[in-house]
Specification:
The complex is a heterotrimer, with two copies of chain A (188 residues) and one copy of chain B (246 residues). Chain A has helices spanning 3-16, 23-30, 35-51, 74-83, 91-103, 108-115, 120-128, 151-156, 168-174, and strands at 56-61, 64-69, 88-90, 106-107, 132-137, 145-149. With 188 residues, chain A is of the alpha+beta class. Chain A folds into two domains: 3-80, Winged helix-like DNA-binding domain superfamily/Winged helix DNA-binding domain (Arc Repressor Mutant, subunit A), CATH 1.10.10; 91-186, Winged helix-like DNA-binding domain superfamily/Winged helix DNA-binding domain (Arc Repressor Mutant, subunit A), CATH 1.10.10.10. Chain A has a three-stranded antiparallel beta sheet. Chain A starts with a helix and ends in a 14-residue tail after the last helix. The model of chain A is unreliable at 176-188 (pLDDT under 50). With 246 residues, chain B is mainly α. Chain B has a three-stranded antiparallel beta sheet with strand order 2-4-3. In chain B, strand 3 and strand 4 (229-233) form a beta hairpin. In chain B, helix 1 (13-23) crosses helix 4 (90-116), helix 2 (33-49) packs antiparallel against helix 3 (56-73) and helix 6 (170-183) packs across helix 7. The longest helix of chain B has 27 residues, at 90-116. Chain B is elongated. Classes of the chains: A alpha+beta (188), B mainly alpha (246). At the B-C interface, helix 1, helix 4 and helix 5 of B face strand 2, helix 5 and helix 8 of C.
């Protein structure tokens, strides 16, 4: 492989990987066993970035090499993180959200009875994300808090109102006769 | 006679017809219906002879073709207007053309997808908890219901648990009944349910009534057996002489 | 901010962003409201990558800009098994996807009328792969569920937005299964 191309291959590998990538791994992938050559390529990329004033660099860390941003750009990375919409929901959060959407108003113990696991932390997250809200207290002993979904929930899912939520039966219809068997592909 | 039908997987009867038309290099606007019908039926026979299932929609199309063919055989009544007589093939042709548009578009999408599958983004950071996580921006209703379905599967192997969408909570209904009692002195039992159409809202309304009675906010009176049941707002001043409690 | 630095700031933002980043987002983060200047910077980065033979490029996709690898390096990324290549879509899946993309919002029965076959299973697959989504219920009897395509669809096919879909080719000649070439652009 010609030198410029080899360098770009390494660059691409460094780019796609979230974790530091080791020399051994690069050797395995490229099938080029010349450690010196690989090191030179890595160094070359870093230098090129530096000379041309790019915002990226290659660092050696935790036994491998990693493409990261230069320290002086940290303020912008932070600004980007700050303005990012709280973007991700865990599967358990999604589960709790689904239970609340379909069963609201509902208290925590009922959610937990359905899911079979403690849901305190997840409920807190959903409250913080403004996907659910407290809708009142249930008139039973201890007057536990009841939860329901918010307008933010509706808009996140593009619903005009709760009546637009498909019923479980409709869902089974979409899913076809198979109902609960979500078999992976139907790629022929 | 030998025919060489290549055994392919067709998406449906329209797909098969397009294939036959293309193979025979005939004009789609002037399909020789007898010929195409024969080829179509031959293909279905072939599939059957291989003991493969022929989808119902293929059979429906076969019937349609035969029907068109027989209509074509009817003598054409002479009319002044040359274009007046409707071509029995017309509807089929327009369906074929419509389908063809999307079939081509699908092919183009496929090629484009192929190209783009060679372009990679950076690896997404793993969720700390190791749970599959979802970007809020592309969460869909499907994910939501799918999540619910998974919970249900996990938890209720026993009798199926029904999830009803509560359009109305007992709490809301309680306030609604109290609101009405602020305007009217009493309500009949049946009037409470006049506007309730679904089973769940009827149940909710009934639960609300029971709750109101339990909380001592209303009292209920029935003067004779099977007679009209009336609901009164309880006056604060105490004294439970508002009638026979239920 | 000096031009070289500004360009590197944008480069860093493109690098750290998981999803295509919009101009609006860049404006919000950098507090530089000059769209022309931002666009010029993005273009400059991409050109510099190209001229210097880097393995990366900037593409406009799904309403934003994204730093991605060049297609010719795909074999190495695949060798690194960094991204489980999504299994290819079946022809039926592509057909349903095409119908939905062009006719959305659309209900299942309409899709099936065009294709002439039941499409339930395929719709489910496309939902699972996040290429389509439920966009509401149609205001007709039975309130059937309507479908539309997702941002993921745009990303998967490298489209800036739906208007970039080529116009449906009206029937020309059936024998030469004519194919318009629309891949080239966007793919420098």
């Amino acid at each position: 492989m010609e030198e410029r191309e080899f360098r770009s291959v390494i660059e691409v590998l460094l780019f796609v990987s979230q974790e530091p990538i080791t020399l051994d791994r690069i050797i395995k992938i490229t099938e080029i066993g010349d450690r010196g050559r690989i090191l030179a390529a890595i160094k070359g990329i870093d230098e090129e970035y530096f000379i041309n004033g790019h915002g990226l660099q290659i660092v050696e860390v935790a036994g491998g090499y990693q493409m990261v941003t230069r320290a002086e750009f940290a303020p912008w990375v932070k600004a980007a993180e700050k303005t990012a919409a709280p973007s991700r929901l865990s599967r358990s959060a999604l589960e709790v959200l689904a239970v609340i959407a379909y069963k609201q108003p509902i208290v925590r113990s009922e959610i937990e009875a359905i899911r079979g696991v403690d849901s305190t932390g997840v409920i807190k997250t959903l409250l913080e994300r403004r996907l659910i809200r407290i809708v009142g207290k249930k008139d039973i002993i201890g007057r536990p808090i009841m939860y329901g979904v918010t307008k933010g929930f509706l808009s996140a899912f593009g619903l005009k109102d709760l009546s637009e939520l498909p019923s479980l039966k409709e869902f089974a219809d979409i899913a076809g006769s198979g109902q609960t068997n979500w078999i992976e592909e139907n790629n022929k | 006679m030998s025919y060489s039908v290549k055994l392919e997987v067709f998406e449906g009867p329209l797909d098969l017809l397009l294939h036959l038309i293309k193979k025979s290099e005939i004009n789609i606007y002037d399909i020789p219906i007898a010929d195409i019908t024969k080829q179509y039926l031959d293909y279905i026979d072939l599939i059957r002879s291989l003991n493969l299932d022929v989808g119902g929609e293929f059979l429906v199309m076969a019937a349609t073709l035969i029907q068109i063919k027989s209509r074509m055989l009817l003598p054409v009544t002479e009319t002044e207007d040359e274009e007046e007589e409707e071509d029995p093939r017309e509807e089929l042709i327009s369906r074929l053309l419509e389908y063809k548009k999307y079939k081509d578009a699908a092919e183009m999408l496929g090629e484009r997808g192929e190209t783009w599958s060679n372009i990679f983004r950076r690896e997404q950071p793993q969720d700390v908890k190791g749970e599959g996580d979802f970007s809020l921006s592309d969460l869909s209703l499907f994910d939501l219901i799918d999540a619910l379905q998974k919970v249900m599967e996990r938890v209720t192997d026993s009798s199926s648990m029904e999830i009803i969408l509560d359009e109305l909570s007992v709490k809301d209904k309680i306030s609604a009944i109290l609101d009405r009692l602020n305007i009217q002195e009493s309500l009949t039992f049946t009037s409470l349910f006049e506007n309730e159409k679904t089973r769940s809202t009827i149940v909710v309304t009934f639960l609300a009534l029971l709750e109101l009675i339990r909380l001592g906010l209303v009292c209920v009176q029935q003067l004779e057996d099977c007679g009209m049941i009336r609901i009164f707002k309880k006056i604060k001043s105490g004294g439970t002489d508002g009638g026979e409690g239920v």
